[in-house]
Amino acid sequence: MNNIIKSSLENSMSYEAYRSLMLKLVEQESTTGVDKSADKIDFTKLNNRRMKRWDKTLKIDGKAKKRLLDFNANVTWLVITESWCGDSAHVLPVLNKVAELNPKITMRIVLRDDNLELMDMFLTDGNRAVPKLIMIDNETGNVLGTYGPRPSEAAYYVKRFKAENGKLTPEFKEDLQHWYNKDKGNTIVEDIAEMLSRFQPSFSQ
Fold this sequence. Notes:
The model is unreliable at 201-205 (pLDDT under 50). The chain contains 9 helices and 4 strands. The chain is globular, with a radius of gyration of 17 Å. By secondary structure, it is of the alpha+beta class. Strands 2-1-3-4 form a 4-stranded mixed beta sheet, covered by helices on one side.
């Protein structure tokens, strides 16, 4: 296993620990990351509310459950994030639900700004975009695949908007939040099921 990945795993936290950290940050009027600006602190507060809602309301339907449970390799999902990241607030609760569903999957979390060497191994279009999921084979330590920072449909919308407008506007970001709320995690579940299915044949009994 790559030493950077190994070190990051050793210093990672569970989803439950990450949620406890966010609650503590909200109480302390703070945020993760190097930038402790008022905006980042406000985003952490907002994201804590979003995650609390998703933790309570997210459901995975029967068909998707079967696809996710068919995966039978022991893997670890190492997820890079920050508390202020709006995409993370929608994506991480879904990843956690999937990991809870399949006992073969262990999910661990690290903070981007505390793990820049790791982050720089998994850039998105040259950017330190989060959340980023790294799927690691527990037996070999090999990286099997990555996911993020956004679900496929949202990533397409973002790419198209940037191509047409140069950068994301506040109005687009608000529309993106509406998309997440309307989608209810379904695209993420489908994306993850598809990712897992690509590695399933080599692990089948």
